[in-house]
Specification:
Structural class of chain A: alpha/beta
CATH superfamily of chain A: P-loop containing nucleotide triphosphate hydrolases
CATH topology of chain B: ABC transporter involved in vitamin B12 uptake, BtuC
Largest sheet of chain A: 6 strands, mixed
Keywords (chain A): ATP-binding, Nucleotide-binding, Transport
InterPro entries (chain A): AAA+_ATPase, ABC_AA/LPS_Transport, ABC_transporter-like_ATP-bd, BCA_ABC_TP_C, P-loop_NTPase
Number of helices of chain B: 12
Order of helices and strands of chain B: HHHHHEHHHHEHHH
Largest sheet of chain B: 2 strands, antiparallel
Bound molecules: adenosine-5'-triphosphate, magnesium ion
Structural class of chain B: mainly alpha
Protein name (chain A): ABC transporter ATP-binding protein
Number of domains of chain A: 1
Radius of gyration of chain B: 19 Å
GO molecular function (chain A): ATP binding
Number of strands of chain A: 10
Oligomer: heterodimer
Number of strands of chain B: 2
Pfam family, one (chain A): BCA_ABC_TP_C
Distance between the termini of chain A: 41 Å
CATH class of chain A: Alpha Beta
């Protein structure tokens, strides 16, 4: 494994009105790592993802991805520079087929113009064929190829979660951000999914940042873990250190008491 | 290639329909009344299909389509009446100017969402109308007399071009990007789609064809007046798209054809016309709340053996 710094987040924060949802967030992700981001409800995990992907503009701090400052990029620019994500609340293109969902993410793979598409020039046929082939490849990895013509909304829940990852992968990321990918899945589905994540990470040479509530799961697969609470980083380190960190235990115990 | 074969099959069928009708018009089997009806139908279908691209495909609730119709109508009329350009060129200029108007309106207003976009586009259409109303060069409120140049041939081939372009656009990576914007703008953006670009493209393309329809429209009725392009006209077009089923191209076409007929038959009963028209709409919305075709296409019903694209997992 090379030791390339892929993502550097320095002192990033965001404020909504008077609420500091995240502050002083600093992360370092190296090429090929699988890192966990955990924390109780409302800690600011999803908000952090939104800042990393350009959905929210941080009110302070610097985000550098692959040597480029991404603070002020719009989401599609961030995606093109090599970051893609899934959403905590599934956001598939519900009325599009499973295949088309992936094709949308494959958009920039082919270059045929609007003119060529409208008048069905040869570059349209070759471009579309390439997209189809590539998209099916992603569906196969996730066992979704047999559903390719179904509308995304008609897939069972677990499959929808998988499709979201397949779609994010089709966007060609170097860094994949997964926001609670196993939420709502049963233990077997979760286990399969984690194996799959390990597999795609190898196969596509990915760096992965994973938000997950299930502590056991995160401890099991992540190499390092960052812990957020009330918008602030309270700990980071290898799973063993996190497990025994009194601040982390307190943050999580606090949550369990209120739940 | 199989897909292009299907395309040529449709194309040949369309040409046959054209030739048969043209033959009947020259042969005198179809009188003025019916040929006018057919031309009006074609114009309305062009309007419906062009708005379908904006609302049905890209999900941008624009309700000022009559504004672009007006731009095409007036600009092409100026071309033929004041500059003696050939009709063909006038149609093209009208459509191009309408699409430029689409860009000018679209770039700032497509950042707005939902109701705000609707209000902005409606406001724009009114501004266009008022500009023509106050321009003496085009006759102001009295209107502008125009030679009748629109023929079945012009109407038909304009219609064919519109449907082919928009259908092909929809079934390409560009059309999928537009549908993705409609389905979930945040997710589309996150997948690398430049959502603003595609909204503007859809809007400009839709305006182009509305402008084309405008040219056919103004050269069909001897006289154009700003009152013909008020918000009621915008709503007429909107109704084709909603009634046909948002997202369904064939739905928009069928709705435009049916409503043109209903409205033509009802011209003899002006008092009851709006009542019956409204009743038709209410009945359709009660029994088919997602429009005549829902999101399906007419071709989905012919794919026997194959599962339809809109089908559920369990209705195999
Ligand atoms: N657009 C927004 N406007 C105002 N407040 C926001 C906005 N987005 C997030 N917040 C607030 O920021 C805080 C962090 O929310 P966030 O969704 O990031 O939490 P989370 O760690 O992902 O929690 P969960 O585990 O429940 O998903 C919350 O208090 C939330 O209400
Ligand atoms: Mg969250």
């Amino acid at each position: 494994m090379t030791n390339n710094l892929l993502l550097k987040v320095e002192n990033v924060g965001i404020q909504f009105g008077g609420l500091k949802a995240v502050q002083g967030l600093s992360l370092e992700l190296f090429q090929g790592e699988l890192i966990g981001l955990i924390g109780p409800n409302g800690a600011g995990k999803t908000t952090s993802f939104n800042m990393l992907t350009g959905v929210y503009k941080p009110t302070e701090g610097e985000i550098t991805f692959d040597g480029k400052r991404t603070n002020n990029m719009s989401p599609h620019q961030v995606t093109k520079s090599g970051v893609s994500r899934t959403f905590q609340n599934i956001r598939l293109f519900k009325e599009q087929s499973v295949l088309d969902n992936v094709k949308v993410a494959n958009h920039s793979l082919a270059k045929h113009s609007i003119f060529s598409s409208v008048f069905r020039l040869p570059s349209f046929f070759s471009g579309e064929a390439k997209m189809e082939e590539e998209s099916i490849k992603f569906l196969k990895i996730f066992g979704l190829d047999k559903y390719k013509d179904e509308l995304a909304k008609n897939l069972p829940y677990g499959m929808q979660r998988r499709l979201e990852i397949a779609r994010a992968l089709a966007a060609g990321p170097k860094l994949l951000l997964l926001d609670e990918p196993a939420a709502g899945m049963n233990p077997q589905e979760t286990k399969d999914l984690m194996e799959l994540i390990a597999l795609i990470r190898k196969r596509f040479d990915l760096t992965i940042l994973l938000i997950e509530h299930d502590m056991g799961l995160v401890m099991g697969i992540c190499e390092r873990i960052y812990v957020l609470d009330h918008g602030q980083l309270i700990a980071d380190g290898i799973p063993e250190e996190i497990r025994n960190n009194p601040k982390v235990i307190e943050a999580y115990l606090g949550e369990e008491v209120t739940e | 290639m199989k897909k292009s074969k299907v395309f040529w099959m449709y194309f040949v069928a369309a040409i046959i329909v054209y030739a048969v009708i043209q033959g009947m018009i020259t042969g005198g089997q179809l009188d003025q009344y019916y040929s006018n009806l057919l031309i009006l139908m074609s114009i309305n279908v062009i309007l419906a299909v062009s708005l379908h691209l904006v609302i049905g495909i890209t999900g941008q609730f624009s309700i000022g389509h009559a504004g672009f119709l007006a731009v095409g109508a007036y600009i092409s009329a100026i071309c033929t009446m004041k500059f003696d350009l050939p009709f063909f060129a006038a149609l093209l200029v009208g459509a191009i100017v309408a699409s430029v108007a689409g860009l000018i309106v679209g770039i700032p207003s497509l950042r707005l969402k939902g109701d705000y976009l609707a209000i902005a586009t409606l406001g724009f259409a009114e501004i266009i109308r008022i500009i023509f109303l106050n321009t003496d060069y085009v006759g102001g409120a009295a209107g502008m007399p125009i030679n009748q140049l629109t023929t079945w041939t012009y109407a038909f081939f304009s219609l064919l071009l519109t449907v082919v372009v928009i259908a092909n656009f929809t079934k390409s990576r560009h059309g999928r990007a537009c549908v993705a914007v409609r389905e979930d703008e945040i997710a589309a953006d996150a997948m690398g789609i430049n959502t603003t670009y595609y909204k503007v493209v859809a809007f400009a393309l839709g305006s182009f064809f509305a402008g084309l329809a405008g040219g056919l429209f103004s050269h069909q009725f001897f006289l154009i007046q700003p009152t013909q392009f008020g918000f009621l006209k915008s709503f007429d077009i909107l109704i084709y798209v909603v009634l046909g089923g948002l997202g369904s191209l064939s739905g928009a076409i069928i709705a435009a054809v049916l409503l043109t007929m209903v409205s033509m038959y009802l011209t003899d009963f002006p008092e009851t016309r709006m009542i019956i028209y409204s009743l038709v709409l209410i009945i359709v919305m009660l029994y088919r709340p997602s429009g005549l075709m829902g999101t399906k296409e007419i071709t989905d019903y012919f794919k026997f053996g194959k599962r339809s694209k809109g089908g559920n997992l369990d209705d195999k």
